[in-house]
Amino acid sequence: MEDAHPTLTGGILDLGRLLNEEPANLLPFQPTYLEVRRGNDGMKLSWLNNSASATGQTMERCDAHELSQDGCTEDDFLPLGALDPQTSEFTDADASALEGTLYTYRIRASSAQGNSPWSNTTQIVTPPLAPADPNATRFSDGIRLTWTNRSQTAERLRLERSRDGGAFEEIAELPPDNERYENTLTR
After folding, report:
1. What would the DSSP string read from start to end of 140-151?
2. Which of 87, 106, 125 is the last residue in one of the domains?
């Protein structure tokens, strides 16, 4: 069998090859439109699953915190596991553990004939860890706020207040290692 893929590349699909080749002899179509977003339980990935003939899919991730600034090379990607051939969604629950990390993802379909090309890559940076153990203590002129800073990557802290339980407004921007603020009450 030739090393040709009936893939959607640059908007061109080789229909002649698709019509003249036994479907069982064709490599699976390449997944496309891979996207990632943050979810409550990890990174949520979705893509367009283009191959009805695939018998599996493999998702891979590259963690930029382990690399130089040059980005991911082929050897930097590690498999996250084998996925059902018909799925088009995956949650990477491990990806939310490290703050300030750039994650790069890719996926490909597989069959007995081989693997499709890799999909596009998509990237996301995990946010800094939020402060913990917030505490508010009233004093004569206002409220003293304290917290425990858990972030190693935050560039600043933004402190917001809601006067009536509704919309919040920013009242201070603080250095990232700050763990205390005194808010003077105004009437």
Report:
1. TTEEEEEEE---
2. 125
User: Which residue, among 159, 179, 57, 156, has the nearest Cα to 107 in the 3D structure?
Assistant: 57
Is residue 20 domain-shared with residue 95, that is, in the same domain? yes
Contact 133, 148 (CB under 8 A): yes
- Tell whether 33 and 63 lie within a shared domain: yes
Read off the CATH number of the domain in which 42 is found.
Answer: 2.60.40.10
| DSSP 8-state assignment for residue 116 | P
Record the tokens describing residue 154, joined without a space.
Answer: 């935050």
Q: Is residue 141 domain-shared with residue 118, that is, in the same domain?
A: no
Q: Contact at 8 Å (CB) between 61 and 92?
A: yes
What's the whole-model pTM score?
0.72
- For the stretch 25-34, pLDDT in tens is 788 989 999 9
